Amino acid sequence: MCGIVGYIGMRDAAPIILNGLKRLEYRGYDSAGIAIYQDGKIEMRRDVGKLSALEQLVREQPVSGRLGIGHTRWATHGEPSARNAHPHIGMTGNVVVVHNGIVENYLELRDMLQSEGAEFASETDTETIVHLIERYLAAGLSIEDASREAFQLLRGAQAIVTFSINEPDRLVACRIGNAGGVAIGVGEDEMFIASDIPAILEHTRRMVFLESRTVAVVTSEGYEVKTLGGAPVILEEHTIPWDPISAAKGSYKHFMQKEIFEQPRALTDTIRGRVDFEHQWVSLPEMNLSPDIVRRISRIHIVACGTSYYSGLIGKTLIERIARIPVEVSIGSEFRYADPLIDDTMAVLAITQSGETVDTLAAMEEARDKGALLWSIVNAIGSQAMRIADGYIAMQAGPEIGVASTKAFTTSIVDQYLLACCLSQFRNGGDSEMVKKAASDLARMPDLIGGVLDHDEEYHALASRLYSFSNFLYLGRGINYPIALEGALKLKEISYIHAEGYPAGEMKHGPIALIDRHMPVLAIATRDGVYDKMLSQIEQAKTRGGIVVALATEGDSQIADKVDHAIYVPEVPELLSPVVNVLPLQLLAYHIAVIRGADVDQPRNLAKSVTVE
Ligand code: AGP
Q1: Is the CB of 354 under 6 A from ligand 1?
Q2: N or C: which terminus of the chain has fewer CB atoms within 10 Å of its end residue's CB?
Q3: CA 307 / ligand 1 centre spacing (Å)
Q4: From ligand 1's centre to the CA of 187, what distance in Å?
Q5: Which pLDDT score is estimated for 98?
Q6: Is 608 a catalytic residue?
Q7: pTM
Q8: How many CB atoms lie within 10 A of CB 430?
Q9: pLDDT of residue 108
Q10: What are the tens digits of pLDDT across the range 131-172?
Q11: Residue 489: CA atoms inside 13 Å, Cβ hemisphere, count?
Q12: Residue 412 alpha carbon, nearest atom of ligand 1
């Protein structure tokens, strides 16, 4: 998804904007540009390709000024090119715009503007925005009023930042719907705007986040927010608990590698303050739960996308086993169009690392329209999914920059485990032995997963043997079936190898036809209630000439003779086994991708936050 950075203050804007865009590179893009107010004019520099090309262009043609905006573009309308790159300037040269989202009615707006004499220099929908603002500036409106008039004509979801040479002391930002966030960073005599926290975290931790259909006017002294209609809006100011270092790669080769190894700390942080280990009691204050609310809930419906959806599949087992509340799980893009049977006796739980995934947000809005209680488990502070929920759990995983989700996945599983315990306490008065055991089991997890990560060299060696295969089959059962799905997704999204996750019991219903020596089978066969069943699936694969790699429990002496290679993980309670079992699969995918020379942190065609349908 596109990235936006804006600056106004006492310092030179260009380096601040370029560094901010670099911190957003993980969001995926194919061109970039900046616009700086310099000597009474707007100086633009744009180029197709990576940010390094833009940086080179700025070195060759320097720009200097204290007001500016920048953008990394993920092409939607108009191929990746310098002329389609943002920012976009109109015909007068008085105003410039950067934009995330899609102007769904851009063709009719373009026709209207062209009929009034506007000449378009690009194929983008974004350029309609700048011509609309020009139209109202020409009528004598201020940049704020001209922007608001223009934004009200747009259909679809947008995140927009603009400025005009008429009023070079301010930026105007707007959010409409769910095209990603608009964060305003509060500095000393300087202000920042960004589509995501990491872009400006090194400058300030004080941030506010625009709600949908609001417009902010940002000067070096501060900001003022109004609705599109002009009514004043007061926003809650957040202090982001992340340190700038945590948004940097440090000594690691890739963000994904760093984030895999941050999981012991991330789990500690997501548990901290939520489990009273002495009294074995779980508390989640931001969920705003009460006995009455919990007793009213007849069913929970989890909605999410991608890796977060697989986390929800695990959450279903956790909540049903611990809290005894029926749970359904849906993919966000399916739920939103399925006219789901939702009512006010239900809770809808969204799981989303970015808090801005458009399909998940749309599912949340559908659920709210049908009267459901709205919960979310979110990593990005201040994101839409956190703001619109009746109760939320912050993953507290720290910024997750790598496109492939890792620490957000494991923390979201533990957060659902905590939620299950909390719900059980409210329903059973907290005397459940299950909760007491669950709370004590949690305490061991950060150390246990640290131990698994210590075997990284072994996973690297295994990757060296497997990286050249073109197809993989991941098999799991029960609570680890979603881990088979997640392991396959990790491999395919960063190494571009075809990989499929499948419930092991389904092998004989089709996939077994695929088994041969050209397709490794990765079987999750740790000791649990379905271990024996997994062994028979492994034998079925072996007798058909398959190459089988098993994920097994330390001390399992029988499995090694049945497979080509065994990876061992410590024995943990079944309900927490997914948190441990996924780690070797994350590292296996990572090492295979690195050996294959793939762009691990920015895989082709993918974005960290999918804010378009
Ligand atoms: C996972 O590695 C992918 N990056 C993708 O499937 C991701 O989980 C999905 O887009 C959902 O993102 P979210 O958690 O931010 O909503």
Answers
A1: yes
A2: C
A3: 5
A4: 31
A5: 96
A6: yes
A7: 0.84
A8: 16
A9: 95
A10: 999 999 999 999 999 999 999 999 998 999 999 999 999 999
A11: 20
A12: 14
Contacts 24+ apart (CB under 8 A), 513-519: 514/471, 514/473, 515/473, 515/541, 515/544, 515/545, 515/546, 516/544, 516/545, 516/546, 517/545, 517/546, 517/547, 518/469, 518/470, 518/471, 519/469, 519/471, 519/472, 519/473, 519/546, 519/547
- For ligand 1, whether the C-beta of 411 sits within 6 Å is no
Structure tokens given for 358: 């458009």
Hey, what's the torsion of the CAs at 358, 49, 98, 352, to 10 degrees? 20
State the catalytic residue, choosing from 2, 174, 421, 422.
2
More confident residue, 82 or 505: 505
Q: Tell the burial category of 326 from Cβ atoms under 10 Å away from its Cβ (0-12, 13-18, 19+).
A: middle
- Torsions phi, psi for 420 (to 5 deg): -60, -45
Strand boundaries in 415-555, DSSP class E = 471-476, 498-503, 521-524, 548-553
pLDDT (mean) for 46-63: 92
Q: What is the DSSP string of 564-577?
A: SEEEEE----GGGH
d(CA 335, CA 429): 33
27: confidence class by pLDDT, cuts 50, 70, 90? low
Q: Is 2 a catalytic residue?
A: yes
What is the bridge-based pairing of β-strands 521-524 and 548-553? parallel
357 lines ligand 1 (CB under 6 A): yes
72 pocket-lining for ligand 1 (C-beta < 6 Å):
no
333 lines ligand 1 (CB under 6 A): no
